[in-house]
## 1
Amino acid sequence: MTSDELYPADRLEKVREAADAAGLDAVLLTPGPDLRYVIGYDAKQLERLTCLAVPAGSDPVLFVPRLELAAAQASPAGALALEMVPWDETDDPFALVAGRLGAVSRVGVSDRMWALSVLKFRDALPGARLALAGGALRTLRIRKSPAEVAALREAGAAIDRVHAQVAGWLRPGLTERAVGSVITESILAEGHATVDFVIVGSGPNAASPHHEVSDRVMAAGDVVVVDIGGTMPSGYCSDSTRTYALGEPPAEFTAYYKVLYDAQEAACAAVRPGVTAESVDAAAREPITRAGFGAAFIHRTGHGIGLEAHEDPYIVAGNREPLEPGMAFSVEPGIYPGPHGARIEDIVVCTQDGAERLNHTPRELVIAG
Ligand code: ZN
Ligand code: ZN
Ligand code: ZN
C-alpha cells in the first residue's frame, strides 16, 4: 500500500467532525500515534513543541520547531493541504497555538501528550477545559481501513518469519538473553523498523506473562514462551506468541497445553461482527475454566493493535462493545499454573462474516533443541 492509501487526506476532516461531535472546540495532537494516524507524520517527541491544532470551526495548522520543518514537509503530511507554521527558538509556541485558537472552552489533547505540554497549554488557554482527545479519535482508529489491514498483514508475516526460526535457536545451555538478542536482530532483519518487546520465558519464567529475558540458562525439559513484536516502517505493529519445549515437556504441561490450544481456537472462531468483545474473552475462558485452570488464566484475552501495540478494543469481561469489520486485536489466552506456563497469540481482524488470522506459524507445541 502507498502512504496516501495508509494515511488518506480526508482524515483531518474526519477528526474535525469527530471533535465537533464530541463537543470539543479544538483538538491538539502532539507527537504519537494519534498525530501519525491523522497526518502520517511520525514526529519525534521532544521538549520543543510539535502540535497539530484541529479547530472545529477553521482550518487545521501544524506548529513545528523551525528545525523540524523539513522533516514535517518530507513526511506524508507534506502532501496534504495543511498549513505548517514554523516557530523560532525564542518564540513561545504555546502562546502561538492559543492565539490561533482564539476563544475556546473545551479542548481535546492527545492521550500521549507529555504533562510538560499539557500544563503549559493549561496556562496558555486559561478559559478552556482540557479533555482527552482519545475518545473522539478512537471511533476512527478502532476500525482499520483495507490499507491498514494490509499493513497489519505485512507486520504479521514479518513476525511469522521470525517465529519460523525460533525453534532452531532454542537450545539447552543458552541463556534467555542470548536467544533474545538473536531474536531482536531477526525482528529487524525481517523488515521491522523497531523492536517493541522480546519475551523469552523459560522454565518457571514461562509462568510470568510479561517476563522479558534473564540470564537463566535453559535446560532440557523446559517450556519456553516466546512473545515478540515490533513496528514496521508503515507504523503498524506485530505481536505473536508461540510456546516451545526443549525436548519432552512434563506430562501435566502437555495436558493443559491441549486445553489452551482448543481455547485459542474457540476464541478465534467466536469472532464475527455483532458479537461483543467480552464474548470472545468468554469463549477463550470457558474451556480453560472447565478444565480446572481458570485461576491460572490471569489476564484478558486480547488487546487491539494498529499504530500502537496495545489499543482499543480490549477483549476483556465488561467490554460489551460489539465487534465490527476492520477491528484488529490479539487473541492470546494463557495458562500459568507454574512451574511452567503457556500462551498462544495471533492477531486477528474481524471481517464481514468472521475473522482473518494474521499469524500462521503452527500453534501446536513446537519441540525445539
Ligand atoms: Zn502482554
Ligand atoms: Zn504478545
Ligand atoms: Zn499481545
## 2
Amino acid sequence: MLTPLRSTLIVMLLAFAGTAPFSGQEATQNPTTPQSQPGDPWWKHAVIYEVYPRSFRDSNGDGVGDMNGITSRLDYLKDLGIDAIWITPMYPSPQIDFGYDIANYEAFDPQYGTMADFDRLVSEAKKRNIRVIMDYVANHTSDQNAWFQESRSSRANPKRDWYIWRDGKGRGKPPNNWQSWFGHSAWTFDEKTGQWYYHYFYVQQPDLNWRNPEVRKAMYDVLRFWLDHGAAGFRIDAISRLFEDPNLHDDPILPGKNAFGDPNIQHKYTDDLPEVHDVLREMRSLVDRYPGDPVLISEADEPTIQDLDKMYGPNNDEIQLPMDFKVADLNKLSAPEFRRLLDEIEFNPLEGQPYFFFNNHDQARTWDRYGDGVHNEQIAKLMAALLLTTHATPQMYYGEEIGMRTTVPTRIEDVKDPVGRTGWPKDKGRDGERTPMQWDKSPNAGFSTAPKTWLPVPPSAAQYNVAAEQYDPNSIFNFYKHVIALRHEISALRDGSYVAVNRDDPNVLAYLRKAKNGTDPVLVALNMSAQPETVNFTLKGFGVDGKSLHVLLAAPQPANSELSLTGVKLEPFGVLIAAVE
Ligand code: GLC
C-alpha cells in the first residue's frame, strides 16, 4: 500500500501533467484542496494572496485593473491553490495614496466596479472555496471624506472632534515636531478655522480621532457592513498608528536625516500606544460574533518580538494573524538569522499563529531584495519554499509566483506614488512593486487592452508570464504550485509542529515538521549560500526514527528521489523538501 506521502507525490505529478491554463476554463477540481480540519479555524491552513486591484486584471480596457478583472482570474487562483485573497482598497477615493485615502467606507470607486460586481466576486470566489478579505484603513480617511469635510467646516461642527485639530505654536509653527511617514511635518494648517490637523501619512490623509466614541462606533459599523456583505475578515492598515499622545510631547530626535531630508525622529508618541490594544480587543469581539471565523490581520511593523507578540492580545483576544515584518524584511539570505527569527515567533508565549510574507505593495519585490543577480530564479524558489513550508500562515503577493521584479520609474515625471514624488531621488516610491500582472506575452502582458496602462508593463514580462510558465515544469510558477499543493496535502506541512535542526549550520536552514500526532515527519533544507553544501541529519533526538529521505519536491531535482540522511547534497540556493521514512 502507498504511504500517504507517496500517494501525494503521485497525485501531484498527475496534477502537474494537467495544469490548467488560466483563461476561459472552468476551475479544475484541485486534488490538493485542504481537508477541513475540525477544531482549527480556516485561516490557520489558508494560503492568502494579496491582490493589488489596479494591477491585477483590467476588464474594461481603461488601463486600470478592476473587480471584474479579479473575478475573471479566480480559476487561475484556484488552480494555483489559493484559499483567500486580500484585496487592497477599492473604495471611493481621490487616489492620492491609491485607495488608502478613503472618501466613503461603504461603497466602491466606480473605476473598480459596483456593489453588484463585488457580490458576484464574493459568490464566484465562494464556489471555488476562496475567501475574500477586505482592507480596513482605520487610522485615517481622505480629506475628501464627508466626515472630514464637516469636521473642517467650523470649530463648532459636531464632527470637529472626529479628527485631531490643535492650535499651532505661533504663526506658521505646527503644534509640535511630529513627522509624517511620507515626509515633512505631520501637521497641516487649515486657513478656514485657523487650526492644524494631524496626519501620520500624506496631507490628504487626516487621522481619525479614535478617542472619540462616535468615531469608534462609525468605524465598527464599517466592519459590520463588510461582514454582512460576505467579507471573510480584514487586513487592518497601519494599526499601530491609531493613537497619539494627547499631551503632544515632541518625538525624540535621532542623529542624521531621513530620505525626505528631515531630521530623523523616533515615532515614540505616535506609534504603538497602549490604547491600540483596547481597540483591537473591541474589533475582535465584534468579528467573533459573526459565523465563519472571520480573521483580523494586522499591518504593523513592530519594532521588537515583544511588540509583535502583544498583537495577539493577552488572552489571544486581539489579532489572529499579525504580519511579521522582521522575517519579511531581513533582506539577506542568512540561515542563522532566519532560524532565530522563525524561533522567536514560533515559540511566542501565547502560541499565536505566526504570519509570514515577503512581498507586498509597499516594498521592493523579493527578486530584488533577496536575489544575488546570478541565481535569482533559484532564489525565488527558495523563498517560495521558505514562505510555504513553515508553520506560519503564508501570504503571497500577486506576481511573486512568476518571478515579477521591481521596476522603478527612471524619471520623476513618471512617478505615481506620492512617496516617490516627495522622496525623489533617494526614495523613488512604490510604483516599482505595483506594475501590471504579467499574464502572457501579448501587448500589455495580457493585463489590459488599453493603449496605455496606469503603470508600464516591465520588460521582463516577455519571459516571465503566467502563460509561458504554466507549461514549463521548471518554472517558478510550477514550483509555487507544487509547494502549495504539498502544504495542503501533507498534514505535517499544513498544521504540524516546527523545529529547527542542524542549528549551528551557517548556510543551510533546515527544519522538521511533524503532523499533530507526531507522525509523518517532513524535513525541509534550504541552502542559503552560493556554494554547494553537503549536510548530515541526525533526527533521533527529535523523536524521528526514519533513516532515509523520500524527496517530495526539490530544486534542482536530484537524480535519485531516495536519499540517505547523511551526505545530502544541496546545490547553491538548493531546496529539498522530503519525507523522513
Ligand atoms: C499602509 C499601506 C500603504 C499606505 C499606508 C497609508 O502602510 O500598506 O500602502 O500608503 O498604509 O495608508
